[in-house]
Every structure is written in C-alpha cells, then in structure tokens.
UniProtKB/TrEMBL annotation:
Protein name as catalogued: Molybdopterin molybdenumtransferase
Cofactor: Mg(2+)
Enzyme class per UniProt: transferase
Function description: Catalyzes the insertion of molybdate into adenylated molybdopterin with the concomitant release of AMP.
C-alpha cells in the first residue's frame, strides 16, 4: 500500500465528520465551550446615559463662561438615579456609573469645581457629551454579540453576562473512548518487570482530548488475542461514543489485531499507512455513529498523531472551523538539518531565541520516537516536508506548536 500524504489523510478524516449536536449550559459552565447558536443581547448597555467620572451634571450652557456658580439640587449614584430634572441654573452631584439626570448634557469633574453648601462653582467650561457614556454605547438589545462556532473565553463570559444572557447553546462535548492493546502493557505504579512496558500514551492523549473539549473514557488495555480484541472493540463501538481512539496494534505484524478486529465489527478503514514520521501506522474509519482513529502504540508517535489528527477531528465535531491542511507557523532554524526523505517529518525541537519577531528553533539531538523525555522537553515540532533539501542555521522553517 502506497503511503498517503498527511494533508490527504487529514482531509479524508475530516470529510466524514460534522457537528454532533448541542446543549444549553449555564454561563458558569460555558468557559471553553463552542457556541452552537449566536449570542443575542437581551438588553442595551449602558441602559441609559451614565457618568464616566465623579463630578456634577449640568446644562453646558449654564457654565459656558467660568467661573459659574450653580445651585445643587440632589445627587445621582450608581443604582440610585436622581428622580428630578436639571433646570437652568442647577446642578446634580453624580458619581462614576450614575445615570445622567434628565436636562443635563454635560459633566464637570469634581477636581474642576468648588462647593460651598448648596452652591457649586464650576471652574472649567464643560463640553456637551464629555465624560458621558451614552446609552447603547457598548451594545444594543437585539444585537448579535458572538457568532456560532466561537469558542468562549473568560472575557467573552463577561460580555454575555452583561447582555443579560444566563444560558448559552453550545456544542455537545465529543465523547471519546480510549482503548490500548498489547500483552506487554501494565499500568504505572504496579511494579513493571523488565519485559513489560508501562502504558503512557493514554494519559497524554486523554489530556489532549480533554483540553480540546472532549469527555474521555479510558476503556483499559486489551491483550494480544483476537477474541478479546474483538469483544473490546464491539463494546466500545456500542458504548455511545463519538470517537474511539485505539493505541497499538495498528501495524501489520502477527500481533497487530486492531485492523482485523475493527473490520469484523463492520468498520471500513480508510487509511492504514501515512507518509509521516513519527507515526506511519495509523488508521481511521467509521462505524455507525462512531469515528475510529487507530494510533500507533509508540507513545511519541501516538502523541504526534493525536496532535495532527485527533485534535482537528474534535474541533470539527464541535463546529469549529478546521483548515484543510495542518496549520504551520514560520520560524528560523537554530542549527543545520539534513535532507528529508519521502515522509513528512515532525521533529521535536526547542525554542532557543527570537529573530526578526520569529522563534528560533533547534531540533533536539535524538529524534528516536521512543524518547519521551525529549517529547516533554520539546516546545514545538519542527516540520520537514517530504524530500526537503538540507537547510542551514538561519534559514526559514515551519513549526507546529505543541500544547501549552
């Protein structure tokens, strides 16, 4: 089977995916969720003309020539507006956030005044409208504030709350199941023997998926035995999950049972080998409502493949815009790199400085895909296109940032 380019594989994976539905959540649970419907303001903000400063409300014409002394007739504070009207020759004490009383069209800040009992002398001529926040200056009732597909940030929640919206419609969280395979795998903390391997990739993949908005269920580790593998796959596919992610058993060895087990459950696998390093053995398909993504068992390869394929899939399931190809960022090489062969290479690299506003990146000295320490040490993936020629330090390059 010919190797499939990364971009083509991603396009095929995303072509079968779409938004999975929505739910209403209270605002306090909406951070990080993706809007499934626009947010429409239910009130005008500010709801009236309000003061931006502490001072005195007046008719600008009454203090066109200063000093001008006016009679104080009351005060307006935030939440306690003045009930009367500012008539000629009068003024109202007001505080920041207070409603500007009827009849007033200007404010003189308190530093430019002198008060003697009920008389207030204005020492600065006011400008109509100055220091007044007009009604609707932020937004008006009925205005669309946030569009469908927007991922809610902390500052967005303040806007939504101010619009008198207490509940929003958001994309349902994708339900992701994780299944690992391999007789050699044991859980951390159980006292692994020399011939055993501590399963680690499920923890990084679960963390990536949760950060992308998914609910994750770890379904455990399956042995390298066909009946058990088929039973595990069948239970996962019948479990109501949107995505099943398997790790391990995705190659073509005698003990790689994931592909035949999935096929036996009616899953048609679209891809098996990707022109990618690390992570050539990778599969995906669909069974009824469940997208299936088969990642390599190697934990570094699994993490890179999850970054490249699982995260875009989870975005699309939540209605987020996903580019047709991996979004790469420009950078500068911090050391020489060799020519690349036919597979797209995602090298673990560190940011060692900045030049011309771009990060300077240097690949880590050991790129073996079993080196978890180097994966943890890396800041970015340095991307080398298929058949890329040698490149020197100081030349432009492309990077894919890793998660924070």
């Amino acid at each position: 089977m010919a190797l499939m380019p990364v971009e083509e594989a991603l396009a095929l994976l995303l072509a079968a995916a779409g938004p999975i539905g929505s739910e209403n959540v209270p605002l306090e649970e909406a951070a990080g969720r993706v809007l499934a419907a626009p947010v429409i303001a239910r009130r005008t903000t500010p709801g009236a003309d309000v003061s931006a400063m502490d001072g005195y409300a007046l008719r600008a014409a009454d203090a066109a020539t200063v000093p001008a002394t006016l009679r104080l007739i009351g005060e307006s504070a935030a939440g306690r507006p003045f009930a009367g009207t500012v008539e000629p020759g009068t003024t109202v004490r007001l505080f920041t956030g207070a409603v500007v009383p009827d009849g007033a069209d200007a404010i003189v800040i308190q530093e430019d005044t002198r008060r003697d009992g009920d008389l207030v002398t204005m020492n600065e001529a006011p400008t109509p409208g100055r220091h007044i926040r007009p009604a609707g200056g932020d937004f008006a009732s009925g205005e669309t504030l946030l569009e469908t597909g927007h991922k809610l940030r902390a500052r967005d929640l303040a806007l939504v709350a101010a619009a008198d919206v207490a509940e929003v419609s958001v994309a349902r969280r994708p339900r992701v199941a994780l299944l690992s395979t391999g007789d050699e795998l044991v859980r951390p903390g159980t006292g692994a023997r020399a011939h055993q391997v501590i399963v680690s990739n499920i923890y990084s993949i679960a963390a990536l998926a949760r950060a992308a908005g998914a609910e994750v269920t770890d379904l455990g580790v399956l042995p390298d035995e066909m009946a058990a593998t088929q039973a595990g796959m069948r239970a996962a596919l019948d479990g109501g999950f949107d995505v099943l992610v398997t790790t391990g058993g995705a190659s073509v060895g005698d003990h790689d049972l994931v592909a035949p087990a999935l096929t036996a459950q009616g899953v048609t696998l679209a891809v098996h080998k990707i022109a990618l390093r690390p992570g050539k053995p990778l599969m995906f398909g669909r069974s009824r409502r469940t997208q299936v993504l088969g990642l390599p068992g190697n934990p570094v390869s699994a993490h890179v493949c999850a970054t490249l394929f699982l995260l875009p899939l989870l975005k699309k399931l939540q209605g987020l815009d996903v580019p047709a190809a991996t979004e790469l960022q420009p950078a500068i090489l911090g050391s020489d790199v060799k020519a690349n062969e036919q597979r797209m290479d995602f090298m673990r690299a560190e940011i060692v400085g900045r030049e011309g506003g771009l990060p300077v990146v240097r690949p880590l000295p050991v790129q073996d895909s079993s080196m978890l320490r180097n994966l943890a040490r890396a800041d970015v993936l340095l991307v080398r296109r298929p058949h890329a020629p040698p490149a020197k330090a100081g030349e432009p390059c492309e990077i894919l940032p890793l998660e924070d």
